[in-house]
Amino acid sequence: MPDVKKPVIAFDPWHPLNQLTPARIGLGRAGMSLPTRANLDFQLAHALARDAVHIPLDFNNLKIKLDNLSYVSQFLQSQADNQSNYLQRPDLGRLLNEQSINVLKAIESLQADAVIVVADGLSSKAIANHAIPFLELLVPALKAVDYQLAPICLVKHGRVAIGDAIAEHYQAKLCITLIGERPGLSSPDSMGIYFTYQAKAQISTDADRNCISNIHVNGLSYEQALTKLLFLIKGAEQLKCTGVLLKDETSDKAIDQLDGKNFLLN
Amino acid sequence: MYKTTAQHLSYNFKTLANSMAKATPARSGDYLAGVAASNNLERVAAQYVLADVPLKQFLNEALIPYETDEVTRLIIDEHDNTAFSAISHFTVGDFRDWLLSAEATTEKLSAIASGLTPEMVAAVSKIMRIQDLILVAKKCRVVTRFRNTIGLENRLSTRLQPNHPTDNAAGVAASILDGLLYGSGDAVIGINPASDNLEATARLLHLLNDVIERYKIPTQACILAHVTTTLKAIEQNVPVDLVFQSIAGTQKANESFGINLNILDEAHQAALGLKRGTVGNNCMYFETGQGSALSANAHHGLDQQTCEARAYAVARKFKPLLVNTVVGFIGPEYLYDGKQIIRAGLEDHFCGKLLGLPMGCDICYTNHAEADQDDMDMLLSSFAMAGGNFIMGIPGADDVMLNYQSTSFHDALYIRQVLGLRPAPEFEQWLIGHEIFNNHNQLKSITEIPALFKASLHAISGGQ
Prior knowledge:
The complex is a heterodimer of chains A (266) and B (464).
Chain A: H1 36-54, H2 59-68, E1 73-77, H3 83-88, H4 90-93, H5 98-105, E2 114-119, H6 124-144, E3 152-156, H7 162-169, E4 174-180, E5 191-197, E6 209-215, H8 222-239
Parallel strand pairs in A: 1-3, 2-3, 2-4
Antiparallel strand pairs in A: 4-5, 5-6
Helix pairs in contact in A: 6-8
Chain B: E1 3-6, E2 9-12, H1 16-23, H2 28-33, H3 40-51, H4 57-60, H5 70-77, H6 81-84, H7 92-100, H8 106-112, H9 118-126, H10 130-139, E3 144-145, E4 149-150, E5 157-160, H11 169-181, E6 188-191, H12 198-214, E7 221-223, H13 227-235, E8 243-246, H14 251-256, H15 261-274, E9 284-288, H16 292-295, H17 304-317, E10 322-326, H18 338-354, E11 359-362, H19 373-385, E12 390-393, E13 398-399, E14 404-405, H20 409-419, H21 425-433, H22 451-463
Helix pairs in contact in B: 1-3, 5-17, 7-9, 9-17, 9-18, 10-18, 13-15, 17-18, 18-19
C-alpha cells in the first residue's frame, strides 16, 4: 500500500477573528485552495440563495393564510409570463397583464386610502417567510388610523413599479409594496418594502419612493420595519410626497452602530 | 453603406451604430434595449458589414452627436491622428487580422493606442472570438504606479475588499488582516462604504491610512465614495490616496451618476496635488460595467458593449492607476448567464487594454444570474491568461455588504500557482520580508500569526 498521508488542512491561527465580522475569514486551506468543508459551506449558501430566486412562490398558500386572518386578497400577474422572462425583462415585470387589468376593472367600489401589494420579486423565500407576520402588524396599524384598505394584491412576477398602476386604479394615496430582494449568500430571504405616495403608472420613478430594506432574521425585525414605515407614512401625509425629500429619521438600533475598535492599531 | 446580402436575404443596417449593435454577440441588455439582432443570421450579416467598415469612418460618423455629448467631444477632440496614421488604411476586418499577426507587437500596440477610438476597438471586438480577445490583450502592456508598480509582465495584483455591512472598524480590520496574510492587497485596499457620507468616508480613510503607515505596506488606500464626497475629504485634509468614481460612456449616463468631465478633472487635480504616491502619480480608480448606460436610460440606441468602451475614453483622460470592469454585478437583465458574463469581461479587458488602460476585472455574479463558481473560474482563468492587471480579493468570495460573489484570496492563489503570476514587486518583497510568502511565490505554512501582527492580536485576545 502506497504511503499517502491524510491531507493536512492548514488552519489559520487568526480564525477566532471571525467573531468580528460575518465575512468568511480564516477559512484555512488545502494546498492554496479552499478546504472541502469551506467549499461545501459556500455551495450550500449559494444553493439557498439560488432556490430563493427560482422556487416559485406558493401564492395559494399565501392566500389561504390571509383568508384565515380575514384579510381580503386577490391574485394579479405582470406581463412577464415566466421566471426567465421576468429576470430579463424588468419592463414587463412593471406592467399588469390583461387578465389582471380586467380583474381590477370588475371591482365595483374603487376607492381606497392605501393599497398593499405583495410581489414575489427576486426571493420567494422572503415573501413566504416574512409577508404574513409583517402584514399581521401592518394591517391593524393602518386600520387603527382609519385607512380604507383595498384588497391585498398578490402579484406574480412583479417588480416594484407594478404597484403604481394598482394604486392609481384605487386612487389610493399610499402604495405599500412588499417584495423579495436580490438574495445574498448570507441573507437569501430578505424582504424589502417600497412606499410611494400618490403613485402613478409610467410617472412615478424610483426617486419618488422610500425603501425599507433588509427585513430578515439577521436584519431589521418586523417591529422595526413597521416603526419606520409608520414614520414615513406620517411624514408623507405632511409633505404630500415620498422619495428623496422624505427622510427616515428613526434610529437604527437594530443595526450594530458600535464602532468596534481597529485592533490592527493596538 | 451598411448593406449586405446573406443567404438571399438583403440587409440594410443604415447606420454605424445599428450595424455595431446588430453585430454584437447575444446578450440580454441589448434585447432589453431593443437594439440586438433579431436572429443569428442577422447578427452574422451585421458582422460581415462591420468587417468592411473603414476605420476612418469612425472619425466621420459619431454614434452620439458631437454637439450633445461631451464624451463624443472628448473622443474626437483628443484623437491622435499621428498615432492613427499607421493603421488608417485598415477596415475593421483588416484591423483584426493585423492585431492577431506577429506584426502587432507590444511596442506597436502601445504606439497606436492614442490613435484608437473606443468605437473602433468595440467594433473589432465584435468580430473576435474569445481566444482572439485573449491573444491580443496579452500583447498589450499597461503599467501604472502609485506606491507600487502594477501591470508588469507575469504579475497579477489584487484589490483587497474588506467590506462590512455597517463599516464596523474591527470587522473591516479582521478582513484586512485575513487578506494580507493570504497575500492580497497590492492593487489597492479598497472599501465600499455602507453609507456614502463624509463622516463615514473620512473615518475609513483614516483607518486605512493608519494601517498602511503602521505596517509600512507598499500599497494604496481607497474608499469608494462618490467623487464629490472624496473631494470634500481632501479639502478637510483627510488622507486620500486614490480618488474613486463609477463612470459610463455617455454624458447623460454620467449625469445620472452625478458627475461630468469637469468634476473628474477637479478631483484628479486635487489628488495629484497631495503628492502621496512614492513611485508614481497615477491616482484615479474608476469602475465601469456593461449595462450602466441603459440602466440610466442613457444609451442613445447604442449596444451596451459600445457604451462600455466609450467609458474608457473618460477613464483614459485621467491616467488612472486602476480601471475595474465590474462585469457581473448589474444582474441578468444585462448579462444573463455565465456565458455572457465571461465574454463581456474579456471584451472589456481587451478594449480597455488596446486603449491603453490598466484593466482589472471584478469577476463576479449575483444570485439571480444563471452563473456559479465554475463560471467565475472560467473567467478568472481566461482573464489571467489574457494578462489582466488585477482582480478582487474578498474573504471566501462572498461580499457581505454588497451581496454578490466575486473572487476570493484563495482564487488569486490558485491562478498564481497555475500561471506563475506574482504580486507587484514592492508588495511581493513586503510579503517575503514578513514571512507571509516564501521566495517561490507561495504562502508559507504557519502555525502562529506572523511577528508583524502578533502584538496587535495579542492585545485583543488578551482582552477577551
